[in-house]
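name: query_chain
kind: protein
chains: 1
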Amino acid sequence: MSASPTSRHADTRIQRWIRRELRRDPPKAKSLVVTVWGDAIAPHGGAVWLSGLIRLLAPFGLNERLVRTSVYRLAREGWLTARQDGRRSLYRLTAPGLQRFEHAYRRIYAPPAEAWDGSWNIVLAAGAVLTDYQRRSLRKELGWEGFSAIVPGVFVRPARGPVADTLTEILGSLNLETRVAVLMGRDLPGLEARSLQAQVRACWNLAAVAGEYRRFLARFGAVSRSFRDGGSVDAEQCFVVRSLLIHAFRRVTLHDPQLPVELLPRRWPAAAAYDLCRDFYRLTHRKAEQHLLATLATHGGPLPPAAPYFYRRFGGLN
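structure:
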């Protein structure tokens, strides 16, 4: 697999890095389509011709068959819907698909959580009559939101920000609104040894998450410096590296329970990884947008401008 920026301004150091990374850790086609759609296409209306998407993903080593198969599967799963225009296909995010993207990407671009007040969100499914699918799906969906099971059927996480809408969405999609209880609670003073706070290491594998963050920093630290130090950079390279960076960061954050700082080990690397993403995004978003708009089109012409929320990512883009 190899990327092949055509601009005469392409930086050969960055080009070598892209080729090496795509050989070492080639992204899975369907997962990369999800990343690129959520990161780049959704802010521009979420609808593109399939032929343009194939061109956009070619520098990642994805051929036409892989892209078509991935998009077809996402459509079958309800993320996308297709509209035929002769021999061309226009794919658009469905309403549930847009909701899923917003749900999945909320944690990527948001700044670190505010101070914790010591309270916990608790989901009680113990004793509820659930199907195997509902039980597996509930555990999976709650895990993506930072919940962990302290005993079978009892899920907890430190309370942070609004959670009601997210849990309503999860429980509603699994038809569990009347079979699962949602509570808030606090540790009792004087019982520190038996508190939820004391169970953090047992509930969440923080060592594994820290290792993922450190590997992410090692992987993208040098190439980000090449962009800062290289002067004029190629628009396609900006888009390709930004997409690989967000793709990798998304995978790490899905495993990160995003606990408040009071519950984390010292020298926790998540903030450094977020800062790297923020700085790279701010440095490259103009060029990356140029490449996106030059490559894709939608029904009726060019892609619409990015929605205002795009420019609020990572605390605000220049």
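note: Residues 270-295 form the longest helix (26 residues).
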